[in-house]
Amino acid sequence: MGIAVSNIAESCTPNNTLDLSSDEELAGELSYTNADRIIITIVNPCILAVGLLGNLAFLFVMLRVRRMWTVTNIYLTNLAVADTSFLVIGVSEKIARYRASPVSGDQGIFGPGGCIVVYVLLDVAYCVGLCLVTLVTVEKYYAICRPVQHRLIGGKKRTKRLVLAVWLMAWIFGLGLLPTWSNFVAVCAAWPETEAFADHPLVVGSCLPEAVWLVDFHNGLQAVPFFVSLVVNAVLYILIIKRLNTRVGAVNNENSIGQQRKNLRQRVRNQVTRMLIINGSIFFAFMAPFQCSSFAFVISNSTGNYVLNNEQVTKLLWVTRTLLYLNPAINPYIYVITNPKYRQAYVQAFTFRSKNRRVPSTTMVDEMSTYVP
Question: Is the pLDDT of residue 313 over 70?
Answer without folding.
Answer: yes
